[in-house]
Amino acid sequence: MNNATTLEILVWVVLPYVVLTIFVLGHLWRFRYDRFGWTTRSSQIYESKLLSIGSPLFHYGIIGIFFGHVVGLGIPKSWTEAIGLREEWYHLMAVTIGLAAAAACVGGLLILIYRRRTNSRVFGATTPGDKLMYLVLAATIGFGVLATIAHSALGHYDYREGVSVWFRDFWTFQPNPALMSEAPIFFQLHILSALALFAIWPFTRLVHVFATPLGYLTRPYIVYRSKDEKTSAPRRGWEKIDY
Amino acid sequence: MRVMAQMSMVMNLDKCIGCHTCSVTCKQAWTNRSGTEYIWFNNVETRPGQGYPRGYEDQEKWRGGWELGANGKLKLKAGGRVSKLLRLFSNPKLPSIEDYYEPWTYEYDRLLNSPAQEQIPTAPPKSLLTGERVQISWSGNWDDDLGGTYAHKDKDPMLKGIEDKVKFEFDQTFMFYLPRICEHCLNPTCAASCPSGAIYKRSEDGIVLVDQDGCRGWRMCVSGCPYKKIYFNHRTGKAEKCTFCYPRIEQGEPTVCSETCVGRLRYLGLVLYDADAVTAAASVEDDTALYEAQKDLILDPFDPEVLDAASRAGIPHDWIIAAQKSPIYKLIKEYEVALPLHPEYRTMPMVWYIPPLSPVVDVVRDTGYDAEDAETLFAAIDTLRIPVEYLANLFTAGHVETVERVLYKMAAMRAYMRDINLGNAPREGIANAVGMDGASMEEMFRLLAIAKYDERYVIPPGHRESAHHLEGTVAECPVGEVANMSLPTESMGMPRPARGRTNLLNWDGHGRPDGLFPGRTAASPGGA
User: What pLDDT is stored for residue A238 in this prediction?
Assistant: First the structure.
């Protein structure tokens, strides 16, 4: 860490923390001041056929990729070795499952971008923010796929001893910029574009990720709301108090 | 027994002349913004016809409403919670803009800026979605007055099975208008379908509303509502629906559609119902029994037991009085002439209709018989299976006898009142034939024919002591905010931002959006 240059520290230490701050505060601000704008802003009503293929492909692909990242970045190599998972097997699994999810995600994204560009109704409803978001999102996914294919599947870079360690150290506030500056170029570009994505995230429609309606699974079907707490229906698990 | 109050509407279809005044005034009041061009909270359909959006009643296609599962329990026809979440990324049953129509405007500036020329300048239509010129081929009431009926008649889902009979006398006899708003159901599927829980039923007056800050645009409500009365604002990405003009109702005023109705065919009032019994009533096995089951939900506001339960439930005294004077209660329960629209959807709709006798009367008159004579009319109702079956498909899940019973009453009232108008002795027998007496017949006539404003609209105002919680009295108007009013931090249970609100998605990118940043001084709230 001693011999890291100023640039390396700026890019791989300062910038990520700045982005994290923007990401968190941005969402808080958006929730407080623009809850009305917190929407998927679906364009399905304009065009349904392509969307019905592209959107599930993309979303399920990217959810798969997200969990792949959780495992790949979050679980240290020593843990998987401790349970006896051999390196080659782990690698094979990660690359095949990862690339399958990436194929769905990229395929879906291409369909969605094609749809957005060629359907004049959908294109008419596309804001400059959407375009920027699509660009950064596509770059992040593209560099990620390139990094996996070029450096991980065909090359010999072990991200679990490089990028993943840097990522975990970032959360324990002991970031090691050398791990990133030694990483192959597509990994570096992937991280940089991801940082850009996280920085614009709270100000784009990507906020809908944090609207995932899991509460639907447990709430009663019909929602009653009252202007007067006394007459509102008793809530599940809450004892009713007469006052 | 859990007594709840429900603000409801009854429309007397015999009086509807299809003038669309309700639709236009509603649109001017509520959906004249961009993104809502195709949205008609109130629309008037010519029946037979496809309705709006096209063929919305075909639930085998749209999967709206509830159905009974194998275990006899109610379930969402389009699938429950898990299947909804799995289909979150593409709703397979969402109507597309083609099922409504592509909204358009005209290039008016070509008229204004036209140079002197030989030909008269034109204003060609252009799409409001793309800005490109379009050929208009459909709209909200394209099949008005049976326009294009021969090309489209097979597309009316309610004509299935009786098409061949209708073809006979289509253009001579059979047409009426059906004005539609949100049904403000007792068991709303839109609310049940909303993954975000943003659609709620107000426990005070039963009005179903969308929390615009809670809606995340998953669109499940649009496909869940069998009446297709939830619309997707394509500009804001939020669901919007008929609000029963709640800011007016809270002030004791009728809805805009009722207020401006030229035929004065709408009635507004409260009914009390037993909320604990709703699920059981909606789960009745036989579709044709749903009308009776729902009618039984509505409680007698004079019954001491009901009154006791109502006051225990916190329903204010003046609301109970209003429920006793309610024209809705009279039409649904006392005279039993109002019927729900599509009870088979099992949502327990609360906008009811008095089916039209006019198609029958028109036929009788055209054949040279006396159209005001009770016997002739009764016989005609029996013979004219076609309109009656069609009406039964709309209002009683196909149960013809119920519709006939209502039409007999209307016919009897006509005949009974004619004697009075002509100065003859009223014939009690006519009233008795339909299970009524002369006095109640005259009362019903008064309510249906000459009831004044405050008899048609019996609306108790919202209560002052909780008035600051009522949305209509709060400066939440989207076009501007009143700075010095004390805004509530809680509204209908949802915490709201105390300061200005911003919609970044609608920001055009120029200057500083209002409400984006906290104001610099106390004198300039909203970051102006």
Answer: 53
